[in-house]
Amino acid sequence: MSGHPHLVPVDAPYFRNAYVVIVTDCVPFAYSDFHNDFLEGMAIAIGGPKLDDLDAYANKVTSILEKSDIRSLKVIHMEVPCCYGLVHIAQESFRRSKKDTRLDVVKIGI
């Protein structure tokens, strides 16, 4: 989500039939092997929803789920309270889209 949910096109070709990772913007800085452990073969969107409109994020992720036929969605977040918003956004997006795509959540410790 590139820091702002409106910057990611919902019909981007890299989401089609892809394994998608949505990650909070602090994780790559806090987890030194982030790229090696989580990104190979994945399409990625980055977000920091703490100060943003959570409904805008949920609408964007819902649209991606509905239009891109992704294979799975993995949410990676830090264990701090401000990062849990991204998990709730993903869960709400699945509820709205009625997709049964696999959702995995990975919590990174401090």
How are the SSEs ordered, and which strands pair?
Layout: E1 19-24, H1 27-30, H2 34-38, E2 42-47, H3 54-68, E3 72-78, H4 84-97, E4 102-108
Helix pairs in contact: 3-4
| Continuous helix count | 4
Largest sheet entry: 4 strands, parallel
Q: Structural class from helices and strands? A: alpha/beta
Contiguous runs where pLDDT drops below 50 for at least 5 residues: none
First-last Cα distance = 23 Å
- Which CATH architecture would you pick? 3-Layer(aba) Sandwich
Number of separate domains: 1
Kindly report the oligomeric state of this protein.
single chain
Rg from alpha-carbon coordinates: 13 Å
Shape: globular
Overall pLDDT, averaged?
88
SS elements, strand count:
4
One letter per element, helices H and strands E, the order comes to EHHEHEHE
Using the coordinates shown, work out and report the CATH topology: Dna Topoisomerase Vi A Subunit, Chain: A, domain 2
What would CATH call the class? Answer: Alpha Beta
Strand order of the largest sheet: 2-1-3-4
The helicity comes to 25-40%
Q: Can you tell me about this structure?
A:
Helices cover 35% and strands 24% of the residues. The chain is of the alpha/beta class and 110 residues long. The protein has a single domain (5-108), classed as 3-Layer(aba) Sandwich (Dna Topoisomerase Vi A Subunit, Chain: A, domain 2). It has a four-stranded parallel β-sheet. Strand 3, helix 4 and strand 4 (102-108) form a beta-alpha-beta unit. The radius of gyration is 13 Å and the shape is globular.
What's a quick, concise take on this entry?
The protein has 110 residues and is an alpha/beta fold. It has four helices and four strands, in the order βααβαβαβ. The chain has one domain: Dna Topoisomerase Vi A Subunit, Chain: A, domain 2 (3-Layer(aba) Sandwich), CATH 3.40.1360.
